Amino acid sequence: MRKQKAKQMWFKAMCGKLLVVVSALALSSGCTTHTIHRTGEFRVRDADLLYPWFSEKDSGVCWGFVRADGSVHTQPSYSSIGGLQGGLALNPCIDLGRPRWVVAVGAAGSLREWQVVSGMAGERVVSLRMALFECSDIQGDTFYGTGTDSVYLFDVFGRVLARAPYRELSIPLGFPCDGVMAACDGLGKWGFVSTRLKWVAEPQFDWLQLDFSEGEAWFGVAGDGRERDRWGFVSRDTLAQSIPPQFAGTGRFRDGLAPVAVWGPGGPNADMDWSRDDAAVPEMLWGYIDHSGSFVVKPRFEFASEFSCGFAVVSHGGRDYFIDSSGLLQGWGGYYEARPFQMDRAAVRTGSGWGFVDACGAVCLPCEYDYVWDYSGPLALTNRKGRLTTDFSPEIRGGIWTYVTRSGDTVFTWGTRPDDSVPFPQK
Description:
Helix content is 3%, strand content 47%. β15 (180-184) and β16 form a beta hairpin. The protein is mainly beta and 427 residues long. The protein is globular, with a radius of gyration of 22 Å. It has a single domain (2-270, 277-426), classed as Methylamine Dehydrogenase, Chain H (7 Propeller), CATH 2.130.10.
């Protein structure tokens, strides 16, 4: 059961809920030309995207950018990039109208000088007047930063628009803003604040989804020792509970469905043998509910991810499979591990390593990598021979890093050669 709990936390991280991990993050590189897809969504040309890369030095990690064709845009020279705390955000962050980002100069983990930089030439636009620990990416004309005792709202010229002391609230950086943001008060309770850092829904939750998905956000209420932790949903429209806390676990709404867990036959308040090592983790079965809170797919899986591209990952018999929205198992699967689809590709792990499959289960990138990150735009990031660290900037160090296309072609490689330890870039 501890393994199941660990896997649950890993999937939540990979779905971008609570942790920010290394991945391929695409940024707009300058004066872009946008097209309108038939769905009404903006699409950005591949040539307008930038992908972060880094070099490892004794003083820490320095970040730069490469273009989607593999050419170097910016040599690694920044200790941090706004919105990339803990490495690179899981989902692509494509700025459709503001070709700027926020970068830091100085050692990671300390107060640093931050600058707003032009996306086209990498030139400084303005330097902030105060040292900060971290900054968010620029959304619209504003961004957020954390200092020694407060969180700040800045405009793109570095002017402070709003400030809130930590004793009143703190906000997680790097998540999209939909007019309101999840925030934590000084006592550890979560609620919602406006973009100007004013409370609009009093803090009352022990855990809270950091952004809304399909108009809903999950929340958690801590148990009192005998009663288990419980999870429900809050509505974006009312900022009040839309589905009461009744589940043993949950995930985001995607494609009209959200994964939720129920307790085993004993129920959430059954007597437990607390002398057993796994007694604090009750057995759970996962299924899917709709926005009314009714089950569409009955709980029967060991774990269930959120839906993406019409499919979700479920665990059954110790292996991972894909299901559609009706709960039907697809004819391919049985992987050691699998992640939800991104950009019509899903990362899967077999006995030989990680790779990617398409929506028919056909292998698009051979399963031969030690680590892979989801596709962002036309590229995905892979690693061989890297090592897992306790750091988050990034959490994989060393080895050979490669950006690959959807057809599996290599466009850019960097890292440490197995025979010398000298960092190298190579197109």
